[in-house]
Amino acid sequence: MAGRLQRALDSAHDSHGVTALLVVSMDNIRWLTGFTGSTALLLVKKSDSVLIVDGRYTQQAADQIRLSGASARVVEARTQSLQLEQLSRELAGVKTCGFDSSEITMLNFEMIGAQNTCSFVAANGVVQQLRRVKTEAEIARMQLAAHATDLALAEVRSMLDEALTHEISERDVRDELEYKMRRFGADGPSYETIVATGVNSVKPHHRPTSTIIREGDAVVIDVGGIVDGYHSDMTRTFLIGQVAPELAAIHDLVLYAQREGVMAVRPGVSGASIDAVCRNIITQAGYGPDFIHGTGHGVGLQIHEMPWVRTDFIEPLQCGEVVTVEPGVYRVGVGGVRIEDLILVTATSSQTLTLSQKESLCLPSRRTI
């Protein structure tokens, strides 16, 4: 972690001409310093860097910064007004300071600007760009999170096997998955686990309800674990009992598109190109209007971060980045299917980190009406 502060300042200076960088995003502060509290201000300058925290975090910040190897002073300021006063003192002599306008409210920006004479320059995405390529330690945490998710889903499959003979709800499946993930080593879920059955399966971000899983349903399960701040992300779609032929065909189509998308992941290929691989397959099959979201996104300290796998992201992927590939088809009156894996970009190709079975997910056996 040592050297990240200087890299961030150098990048902000090279791209925006600033001599200091104000960081307020806790994910970015964690990546730069190792500090895992809930609130702080980080000012990175050429002479030194300072992390301003309230009294709850003074000792924690000092310990975590020391362990990370980052070079930053910790200053305690117990109220917001005192923190802004301290920031103003630290900015003395600074002519231009970069900040990320997506991470700070207009009110806070006006409060900071009112107390300082330096010029503030929007330097959006500076730290996020640096976070794109993961270290071996970061990848290892994501692998642990993915493994916990794989193990949890394998055990929860037995619940779905019983869906034809027992009343099992979306919430039942969610609760069991999140319990099992913790049991297998995750600190918790990356996000509220999505379990969407029947008519709910056409809603990509459906929140689990008491809806009972029935024969003929598609059950979309989107689940991720978190280990030491780093996320995993995976989606599987199960078909329950006798299903309509069109729903079975949609599952086969999405599975094919997803496999082809995963095969396209490698250094130098843009997110837009991978999106096009999946989208063209689905469009040619007549379901283009039913593919209603991007194909994927980066994963790391945030569940959604750079790089993006969508039509407008033309930057090439780099070795060490981790992305999802998750095409989906959502046809009202038939059902929704999404299949997603977490993919590490390697030196020449890619490695799939989520290993749960994708094929033959019709339970208890593949049958169509």
Automatic annotation (TrEMBL):
<dbReference type="Pfam" id="PF00557">
    <property type="entry name" value="Peptidase_M24"/>
</dbReference>
<keyword id="KW-0378">Hydrolase</keyword>
<dbReference type="InterPro" id="IPR050659">
    <property type="entry name" value="Peptidase_M24B"/>
</dbReference>
<dbReference type="GO" id="GO:0046872">
    <property type="term" value="F:metal ion binding"/>
</dbReference>
<dbReference type="InterPro" id="IPR036005">
    <property type="entry name" value="Creatinase/aminopeptidase-like"/>
</dbReference>
<dbReference type="InterPro" id="IPR029149">
    <property type="entry name" value="Creatin/AminoP/Spt16_N"/>
</dbReference>
<feature type="domain" description="Creatinase N-terminal">
    <location>
        <begin position="9"/>
        <end position="133"/>
    </location>
</feature>
<dbReference type="InterPro" id="IPR000587">
    <property type="entry name" value="Creatinase_N"/>
</dbReference>
<dbReference type="InterPro" id="IPR001131">
    <property type="entry name" value="Peptidase_M24B_aminopep-P_CS"/>
</dbReference>
<dbReference type="GO" id="GO:0016787">
    <property type="term" value="F:hydrolase activity"/>
</dbReference>
<dbReference type="Pfam" id="PF01321">
    <property type="entry name" value="Creatinase_N"/>
</dbReference>
<keyword id="KW-0479">Metal-binding</keyword>
<feature type="domain" description="Peptidase M24">
    <location>
        <begin position="141"/>
        <end position="347"/>
    </location>
</feature>
<dbReference type="InterPro" id="IPR001714">
    <property type="entry name" value="Pept_M24_MAP"/>
</dbReference>
<protein>
    <submittedName>
        <fullName>Unannotated protein</fullName>
    </submittedName>
</protein>
<dbReference type="InterPro" id="IPR000994">
    <property type="entry name" value="Pept_M24"/>
</dbReference>
